[in-house]
Fold Phosphoribosylamine--glycine ligase.
Amino acid sequence: MKVLIVGSGGREHAIAWSVSQSKRVDKIYCAPGNGGIAQIAECVDITAMEFDKLADFAEKNQIDLTIIGMDDPLVGGIVDVFEERGLRVFGPRKNAAIIEGSKSFSKDLMKKYDIPTCHYETFHSPEEALLYLGGCNFPIVLKADGLALGKGVLICQNLEEAEAGIATLMLDKQFGDAGDTVVIEDFMVGREASVLCFCDGTHIKPMTSAQDHKRAKDGDQGLNTGGMGTFSPSPFYTEEIQQFCEEKIYQPTMDAMKAEGRDFVGILFVGLMMTADGPKVLEYNARFGDPEAQVVLPRMKNDIIDVIDACIDGKLDQIDLQFEDNAAVCVVLASDGYPEHYEKGKLISGLEKFDGKDGYYVFHAGTKLTDEGIVTNGGRVLGVTAKGKDLKEARKNAYEATEWISFENKYMRHDIGKAIDDAK
């Protein structure tokens, strides 16, 4: 098979790595890719939003399967373009990707079909939102309705912060049109977990659990980021909780989308909060999480191509999805100053130390291949991932591996997964 992956981040590198493990695949392309992906795939100079160019490339090169990694092209309708041209593609169509593209749509869906989530209200004008805030109990959560690079969620501790948040989202347009509509919801207390699920439009199969660390600094301080590290599995996501989620959240979400005429085929990411009242949905995404993919995919035993084929063909119920009985931790190496201002073009050394080391991975996010070597080319630069027999060992291995890599302005959190150690 010839496979094309669309995207350029750590998630796409993890997908490309997983595809490269398949005995069914001879050739991998990635558009546009990055410095690390270039070592296992042929990178193509087409951006993720150039749908017709990507489809032309797939036709010309007789691509057997295209996997869409990123949210923007999915929400924009890239799958529809490929399908209209008879090309085999994996990801939800535009009318289903709205589950991530619009927070208000997903909240209304949960409300209509009685899927557990918190109380919320939706606002289209800053005046209405500000008026509503006057009667709120704090803390509360503000969410930009549209896509905002994983950063459009503001947790506000008091009225002053909430009013400033409305100004940021709706008046200053920090995230552009994504903030035209804002969802204000109750703040949920509990432990978070992320569960990625394969979907074929009717059936849904959850993968192993993970937990992301969104804040830029240790102790969950600082600004929201795209994710500073993650671990898998979550010890708090028990078999009992999984059974509840399968019966009350995962399958009902699939059924709800089908009932709305929006059959969901692809990856459904379910962000959960395990509250005192049981698990509730924080958010949905319509693709692999980043960096969740970096700890989930290395633990998957199945050939990813077999699973994706089953999703596209509506035969997911025939797949026995299996994961290793171990743990994985990913620590993101970022450019100092991320998520605000940071420098690019810093030479990276030590990447070769991962070669041939079983259970250790370095997934490239913001990197670029130059004549001098691989250099930094983004805020999140690398995802250093390691396995271990349990989370404690995986965490130790991952942090040791971060020391193998050097670049100017290298920055990371030092407490990824630490709360788990403390809890135990």
